[in-house]
Structure formats: structure tokens, C-alpha cells
Amino acid sequence: MDLIIILQAGVASGTVLLYATIGELFAERSGIISLGVEGMMLLGAMSAYSVALSTGNPWLGVLVGMIAAALFSQIHAFITITLQADQVVSGLALTFLGAGISLVLGEGLSKAGAVSLLPSFSVPLLSQIPILGEIFFTRQSVLVYIGYIFTPLAAYYINKTRPGLHLRAVGEYPAAADSMGVNVYLVRYFYVFVGGLLAGLAGATISLAISPGWFSELTTAGQGWVAIGLVIFAQWNPWRAAFGSYIFGALRRLILDIQGPVVLLGMANPFYYNPYWGFFLQMIPYLFTIIVLVIGSREAMRKRVGAPAALGKPYVRGERGL
Amino acid sequence: MTDTTPSASQKRRRFPFRVQIEQRIDLPSRLYQFLVSFLALIVALILGGILISMAGGDPFRSYAHIARASFGSTGVLSDTIVKATPLILVGLACTVAFSMRLWNIGAEGQLFMGAFGASTVVLLPILPADTSPWIFIPVMIIAGALAGALWGSIPGLLKAYLNVNEIITSLMLNYVAFAWVNFFIFAVWSEGGFQMSPMFPKTAWLPRLADYAESIPAFRGLTTHLGFIFGLILAFVVWFILYRSKWGYEIRLIGDNPRAAEYAGLNIKRNIILVMMLSGGLAGLAGMSEITGVVHRLQGSISPGYGFTGIIIAWLARLNPFAVVIVSILFGALLLAGREIQPSGIPKMIQGIILVCLIASEFFLRYRVRVIRIGED
């Protein structure tokens, strides 16, 4: 068990969470809780894999996966923004529906043959850096590299650009944004769409790059929910979201790999000799999500920073309050 | 959401009617609420049919099959009720929590922990195998409900004292519960290497209708078990708690307006924990009823996602415990017949469509849509 290999794989598996988390972060910054991430990821993973399989072009697969999930997210947008229904229930509905549609349309995909995957490569020069180069820049999928550029871009977009300002205004005080001429409904539709695109990308990252294939609901195994938890831990900040995603990815990888070697840290590996202890290892990512949430919530209370003020509240023009 | 959208004003010249949408001040009548839900269900089934035919199936045959395979004879009706039994219990669990706007989506895990708790009575063992059913079953009920309630109290405690979002914690605990139960059925109580515990003694089985076939021949082969009666009794108990007791009033007040409830001096933290425990306890009973009434052993495949279906059931029943019973029987039919339908994801997809249509239909409960003749107003 080589620590560098684990971290290398951890960065790759953290990329999935990174896209999903930042997608959710965009939607929540505009004031919409989108709990359907798991369903959108499944839909993205299934359609990306199925398109890549039938056309032989993985890039087309990624594109279709993203668009499918984004169009699907508009159901949630319509129900919560136009019909002003409860965002929690609508998000749950989307989770069921996304999983159901993916299972129906993905029937038989798991037995399908090999698919051409997205390319992996090492970055010249950067991969020569000791340790860090090996972890971050050696034989990673192209989507992992896109992930590195993506976080600073997202942070810059939200904090420094005019559309980013509108996004934050709509999430914090939609009535004020509306009076300044920002179309609150349109902005919210747009960022739910962006959230869908990124959830679809996260799904496609799984099925076409990180752990290729379609394994019905086990493809995502609750990672969509982990992403929603990470948004809270990240306190709606893309940098913290990226940090949380990579740590989490590494943890997932470590748990998978720790059962392999006979000798661990110079002594007999208890997980090798008691394979059933693996069930307790399986609990760790989920328990860790809860711990991360507790940390995030405590910090939010202490620093008095927190969720966008209008998060979860439908905006009705002319109504009192937020 | 005001009355004149640009497109409406353009149409005014050509079309003599326009649609006006206005907010309702009070809730519409019960009958209207029922009709809206019913129509949402119909629309959902039509949309589901379209999707089934797009996926290459025949929707009419699928639906006819569901109806025949679930209500076609006394035998299958009895099986439908067996499927409905855990759904009633988890539906009630979700109803209690949702009445306080507490989003317990961990009923699935609480169900598994309830099954685990009830199993410990037989497998640990807490009681010897030859104990009378009159002691065995009540002890298993208590153990199952207690295990579910303890599991449910974790998100409750975290929410009450640390302000942690209960949606994610309750969901994450599902996965922990699966792994926990799997550890016991693989490693500790495995029977001959299979992924299940040994069979429970007959004294720990919930009585079935078929057990009385000697005196009433019509009951021969019917699998409906005592858990269904528990479900009916608990539906009444939950209705009484929510709509006739002081505690239920507090629960609904906190759900409707937490700020007002706080000013009224209600102890919100205590209520969060208690409601989560009640909710978890009901879900735990569902697990207990499955292992003592249906499979008679602890195994991994006791639930095809009952805990999640419970969410939809509670919502479709509009948090009315008696409606939960009826809706559960309908969903029991869907699950029973759905086992044989290909592709296997169809029941899950239909559940999703139903919930989407239902939540969308609530628009008509909050707004009045009127078609107005131009020039009338």
C-alpha cells in the first residue's frame, strides 16, 4: 500500500465530488436547495456511459450526460421557482425519479462491452515535482486536470464578476436584486441548470473516467448526498468545497485499499485477517460526512456566517419579507 | 406570478379569455384537496406509461399486470397487504416527522436497526427459544421500536443541540445501518456461510391468517400477519397524537411556524428529539414486523427501499394517518406486482413521477386559477 498511489487515486475520486459539490454550491448560492444531486448524477453517469458505448466517443458521452442532467434539473427549477413548492420534497422527488429513469434506461448497460474512456496523461514538467507532481499530475484523467482549473474559476466568478454579484444578491436578498433590475426567476433557473450540468459532469466523471462502467445505483453510492453535506461544510465557498472534496476522495480510496496488504504499518493488517471488519470501514465515509457537517455547522454558528439568507425560500414578487 | 404576463396581454386581442392566477387565503376544502391529489396520481400514471413505452415496454400491459397481480384474487390481495404493512409503519414514521417539518429521510436505516434490535432478542439471545409467544412478541416489539428510536434520535440530537441539517445526517445513517446489519449477518449470525441468520423459533413468529386455516378454511395459504393489525392500531394512535393531543398540537405548530412556537414558550429542542424518536420507533417496528412476520430471520434483503417509499406515502396522504393506510395498500400493490415487471427500475421510476406530479399539483392548493372573459373585470 503506497501512500502516494492512494492519494493519487484519491484526487481522482475527489474530482467527482468536486464537480457535484460546486454545482450544488451554485444552485444554493442562488437560493435553491437542490437535493436531487444523486438522481442527476445517476442520470448523467448512465447517459454518458450509454452514449459513449453506442457512438464510441467519450467526449460526446460527457456532453450528453451533462445536458441530460441539466434538462432534468429544470423539473426541480420549474416546481420550486415557478410553482413555489417545497424545495426539500421536490429535490427528493428528483432523486427518486432520476434513479428510476436511470435504472430503466440503463437496463442491460452493466453487461455491455468495453467502452472507450476519456484520455489520461501526465503533465510534462509538473509531474517531475517530487511527491506533489506524482499525486496531482501523473497519469490523471483529463477531467481531473479540468477540475484543478475549475475551482479558481468558480471562486473568481462568484466573488469578482458582475454575474457572480447578481448570483449572490439573488441568494441573499432577492427583493433587493429584483428592484435593481435583476431577473430573480431567470437567475435561479440558470443556476439550477448549472448545478445540473455539473452534477451530470460528476456522474460522467465516474462512469467514463474514475471507476468506468454502469453499476446501477451503486455507481454513485450516495456521493450526491455527500456533496450536499460538503456544501454546508464548505460554507458555500468554492475553495473549501474543493478542499473537502479532495480530502473525502482520499478517504474513500484509503478505505478501499487498506484491506489489501498483509502487513500494515509494520504489523499484521487486522483488516486483511478479519475481512468482515470491512463493514466498519464502509461506514467511515458516511460517519465522516456527519462529522464534517457538525464542524461546518458549529463554525457557521460561531462566525455568524452561513447559508445564503434566502436559501430554501421561494421568491414571490411583491410579497413581504425576503 | 401576477395576473398579466406579457404573452397574456398579447393574446388579449385574439382570444376572448385569459387565465388569472391568484393566491388563496385559506386552504381549499378536503374534497378539493383529494381531487387534486387524485388527478396528480392519474397524470403521473399517464406520464409513467409514456416513459414505459419510450423504454420499449407496453404501458397497458404493465398496468393491467399490476392490477391483476395485486388485487386479482384473495391470495394476491393478502400478499398486497403483506407488502403494505411495513409501508404503513414507515409512512406513519414520515408523517409524524414531516408534520413538524423535520425531514427524516432515514426511515430505511431505522427500519434495519429495528429489525436488528428485534433480532437480538432471538439471536443474542435475550430470551430462550421456548419462550411463550405472549412474552416473545411484546419483547421483540419493544426491542425493535427502541432500536429504531435510538437510531432516529441521533439526527434529532444533532439537529437540536448542534443545528446540524437532519436531512443529510439521517440519510448518511442509512448507509451506516446497512453496514452494521451486514456485519452481523455475514460475520456473527451467519448460518452456514449464507448471508442470513438462522431461522427464528416458531414462537417468535407473528401469527398469520394461514395459521388459523384449520378452523377457518378460507384462510388457507393467506400470508397476511399480525403486523397489519399493528399498522392499523398505530395509524389511529398517530392520528390521535397529531390531531387530538396537546403534544400533536405543539408538533404541528412548530411545523407551521417555529418562531411563533418559540415565542409561545414551546421547548423546540425537546420536541425535535422526541419526534425523531417516535418517527424512528415506528420505522423500527416496520423492520421488526418484516423479520417476525415475513422472513423469520435477519437478512439483508428485508426492504426494497420501504423507508424511501414512506416519504412519498406520507406526502400523498397529506400527512393524514388514515390516508397513509389506504395509500400504503396502493403502493404495496405497485411493489408486489413490480417485482416481475421488466425493466426492474419501473416501480422506482413510477414512484418518482408520482412524487413529482404531487408536489407540482400543490400549486393548485395555494393558488386559484380562473379563466376570465375579457371585459368582465
Which key terms come to mind for this protein?
heterodimer, A: 322 residues, mainly alpha, ABC transporter involved in vitamin B12 uptake, BtuC, two-stranded antiparallel ribbon, 13 helices, 4 strands, 68% helix, 2% strand, globular, B: 377 residues, two-stranded antiparallel sheet, 15 helices, 2 strands
Per-chain topology:
The complex is a heterodimer of chains A (322) and B (377).
Chain A: H1 3-29, H2 37-55, H3 58-82, H4 87-105, E1 120-121, H5 132-137, E2 140-141, H6 142-160, H7 162-172, H8 174-179, H9 184-210, H10 223-233, H11 238-257, E3 263-264, E4 267-268, H12 270-273, H13 278-303
Antiparallel strand pairs in A: 1-2, 3-4
Helix pairs in contact in A: 1-6, 1-9, 1-10, 1-11, 2-3, 2-4, 2-9, 2-10, 3-4, 3-9, 6-7, 10-11, 10-13, 11-13
Chain B: H1 6-11, E1 17-23, H2 30-54, H3 59-71, H4 74-99, H5 107-123, H6 133-162, H7 166-188, H8 227-244, H9 246-256, H10 258-263, H11 268-295, H12 306-316, H13 321-338, H14 346-361, H15 363-366, E2 367-373
Antiparallel strand pairs in B: 1-2
Q: Could you give a short description of this structure?
A:
The complex is a heterodimer of chains A (322) and B (377). With 322 residues, chain A is mainly alpha-helical.
Outline the structure in words.
The complex is a heterodimer of chains A (322) and B (377). By secondary structure, chain A is mainly alpha-helical. Chain A has one domain (3-303): ABC transporter involved in vitamin B12 uptake, BtuC, CATH 1.10.3470. Chain A is 68% helix and 2% strand. Chain A is built from 13 helices and 4 strands. In chain A, the strands form 2 sheets. Chain A has a two-stranded antiparallel ribbon. In chain A, strands 3-4 form a two-stranded antiparallel ribbon. In chain A, helix 3 runs antiparallel to helix 4 (87-105), helix 6 (142-160) packs across helix 7 (162-172) and helix 10 (223-233) packs across helix 11. Chain A starts with a helix and ends in a 19-residue tail after the last helix. By secondary structure, chain B is mainly alpha-helical. Chain B has a domain at 93-307. In chain B, 67% of the residues lie in helices and 4% in strands. Chain B contains 15 helices and 2 strands. In chain B, strands 1-2 form a two-stranded antiparallel ribbon. Chain B is globular, with a radius of gyration of 23 Å. Chain B starts with 5 loop residues before the first helix and ends with a strand. Chains A and B meet through helix 3, helix 4, helix 10 and helix 13 of A and helix 7, helix 12 and helix 14 of B.
